[in-house]
Amino acid sequence: MSSPLSSKPFEVLLVEDNPGDVRLAKEALREGAAPKNIHVAEDGVAAVEHLRSLSGARDRELPDLVLLDLNLPKMNGHEVLEEIRRDERLCLIPVVVFTSSAAAPDIRQAYRAGASCYVTKPSGYAGLVDTIKRIERFWLSVATLPSRAGQDD
Predict the structure, then answer these.
(1) 127: helix, coil or strand?
(2) Which of 13, 38, 88, 149 is deepest in the core (most CB within 10 A)?
(3) Nearest to residue 131, comparing CAs of 3, 23, 28?
(4) Structural domains in the chain, sorted by start
(5) Which are the contacts of 74, defined by CB distance < 8 A and separation ≥ 6?
(6) Which tens digits make up the pLDDT trace of 3-43?
(7) Within the chain, which residues score under 50 in pLDDT?
(8) How many whole angstroms separate alpha carbon 152 and alpha carbon 125?
(9) Which residues of 13-22 are buried (b: 16+ CB within 10 A; e: fewer)?
């Protein structure tokens, strides 16, 4: 189990183009017990560029978790997920598809491409914040992350 009180902050990449959802997600993530560094990419191309800039650098940290919207400009979330899964250094990063689409084809395509899980965004402020907190609790407190496996805290 990952320690929520680890001295090393969790690295989270939020890939979201809606400024309101970015603000709410950051607020919800910051309220959690575990320290986090939250990075935001506002489109698919920026997300892939950010991840690739990290994949070759030794002094920078890969994300422990990616929260990925599907409906993005420049490169959609499905394409971003495929790029992550094709890259040897990035492919183990858990990717939570967090999107407004509840369409069965989107869900199937995301899982086929290697999504770690698929969460449909609820409507309304309280539901969105609660869901993000639940995602954080599971992925950063309950699940054992590949980036944290075997590390001494």
Answers:
(1) helix
(2) 13
(3) 28
(4) 10-142 (3.40.50.2300)
(5) 43, 44, 45, 46
(6) 444 568 899 999 999 999 999 999 888 887 788 899 999 99
(7) 1-5, 58-59, 152-153
(8) 37
(9) bbbbbeeebb
Structure tokens of 90?
């990035």
Give residue for tokens 């420049």: 74
Output the pTM of the full model.
0.88
CA dist 85 → 45, 66, 79, 90 (Å): 15, 12, 10, 7
Contact 10, 19 (CB under 8 A): no
> What residues are paired with 66 via a beta bridge?
13, 95
Place of tokens 């971003």: 80
